[in-house]
């Protein structure tokens, strides 16, 4: 059947409004087979890897997946929790917290989350929302800065699902919120709260704060992707909110893959450089990641620490991502409320 069948029972119900949060995704387990399935889906996306399929697919199948699946599985094993993947756990908790916040504000809305790759898939969640009577869906990717390899591919999947619905809901999408005041304030509060508990860096004596974002091929930037510029704007706003200078706080990019040039400066070489220069303390925070995951917990907290101390640095601090901080949930609520304007969302009074 080309289009999904829909029950006639839905037609008489009052239409509901829904919010669908979208995150990147994660393997179901840290075992190589599960990681391989996840990486195959992720790295087969032409939004993620812009290499002609005739070249990329054989390379992916016969070289990258066999090697990287085992390597990544070992990394996932170091961050896995008794409840599963940190990314999934934090995304679930954010969804629950946002649902409670909106209901406390008398919003009669459905709130769910889906993953672009892996489980739960976006298609499944949209169909569940339709079965629950959602006639209006606000799609909010959990990526503050827009990129074609994150936000755009999430939206691609949403609209692919709509292509198979006989009765399509109204859709609104949130492209970015990199400069939203509440997001910036949540970042500020996360950093300052950490410093209240663990001490503030001695910036006058050379301690430094690194703001590390996920990298992107330089070619993608040259083709017009706005991600880099939005990261720069986020950093400027956050540095001003923290009352720091550009000499005390650096913007870097992590998670390089392959031999091509990516956005610079790179995080790991910067950590190594600071260690060689005798920097006593460095703190690293990842503003673009709203949930801790492999890239923050293994790449930064574990490997970044090793690189810095091996190069001569003394004290390394990893500042956790926003996760389920109250300031971040409040910011999510404000972003959602802004984009829901004009839709019927308030609970009806008895």
TrEMBL record:
One Pfam family hit: Ferrochelatase
Keywords: Cytoplasm, Heme biosynthesis, Iron, Lyase, Metal-binding, Porphyrin biosynthesis
Pathway given in the UniProt record: Porphyrin-containing compound metabolism; protoheme biosynthesis; protoheme from protoporphyrin-IX: step 1/1
Source species, domain of life: Bacteria
Localization (cell): Cytoplasm
EC code: 4.98.1.1
InterPro entries: Ferrochelatase, Ferrochelatase_AS, Ferrochelatase_C, Ferrochelatase_N
Catalytic reactions of this protein: heme b + 2 H(+) = protoporphyrin IX + Fe(2+); Fe-coproporphyrin III + 2 H(+) = coproporphyrin III + Fe(2+)
Binding site for Fe(2+): 214, 295
Main location as per UniProt: cytoplasm
PANTHER family linked to this entry: FERROCHELATASE, FERROCHELATASE, MITOCHONDRIAL
Similarity remark: Belongs to the ferrochelatase family.
Functional note: Catalyzes the ferrous insertion into protoporphyrin IX.
Name of the featured protein: Ferrochelatase
């Amino acid at each position: 059947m080309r289009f999904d069948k829909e029950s006639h029972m839905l037609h008489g119900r009052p239409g509901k409004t829904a919010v669908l949060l979208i995150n990147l995704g994660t393997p179901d387990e840290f075992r190589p087979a599960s990681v391989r399935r996840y990486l195959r889906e992720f790295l087969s996306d032409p939004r993620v890897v812009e290499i002609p399929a005739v070249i990329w697919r054989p390379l992916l199948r016969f070289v990258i997946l066999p090697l990287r699946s085992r390597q990544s599985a070992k990394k996932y094993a170091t961050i896995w929790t008794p409840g599963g993947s940190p990314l999934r756990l934090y995304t679930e908790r954010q969804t629950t917290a946002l649902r409670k916040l909106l209901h406390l504000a008398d919003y009669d809305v459905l709130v769910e989350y889906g993953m672009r790759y892996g489980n739960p898939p976006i298609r499944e969640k949209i169909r569940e929302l339709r079965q629950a009577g959602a006639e209006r869906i606000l799609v909010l990717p959990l990526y503050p800065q827009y990129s074609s390899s994150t936000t755009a591919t999430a939206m691609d999947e949403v609209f692919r699902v709509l292509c198979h619905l006989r009765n399509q809901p109204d859709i609104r999408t949130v492209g970015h919120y990199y400069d939203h005041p509440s997001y910036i304030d949540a970042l500020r509060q996360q950093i300052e709260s950490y410093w209240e508990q663990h001490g503030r860096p001695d910036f006058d004596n050379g301690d430094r704060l690194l703001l590390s974002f996920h990298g992107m091929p330089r070619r993608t930037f040259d083709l017009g992707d706005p991600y880099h510029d939005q990261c720069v704007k986020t950093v400027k706003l956050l540095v001003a909110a923290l009352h720091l200078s550009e000499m005390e706080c650096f913007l870097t990019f992590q998670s390089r893959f392959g031999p091509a040039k990516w956005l610079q400066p790179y995080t790991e070489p910067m950590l190594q450089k600071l260690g060689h220069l005798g920097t006593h303390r460095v703190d690293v925070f990842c503003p673009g990641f709203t949930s801790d995951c492999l890239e923050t917990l293994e790449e930064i907290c574990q490997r970044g620490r090793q690189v810095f101390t091996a190069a001569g640095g003394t004290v390394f601090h990893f500042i956790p991502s926003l996760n389920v901080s109250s300031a971040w949930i409040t910011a999510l609520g404000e972003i959602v409320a802004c984009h829901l304007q004009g839709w019927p969302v308030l609970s009806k009074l008895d």
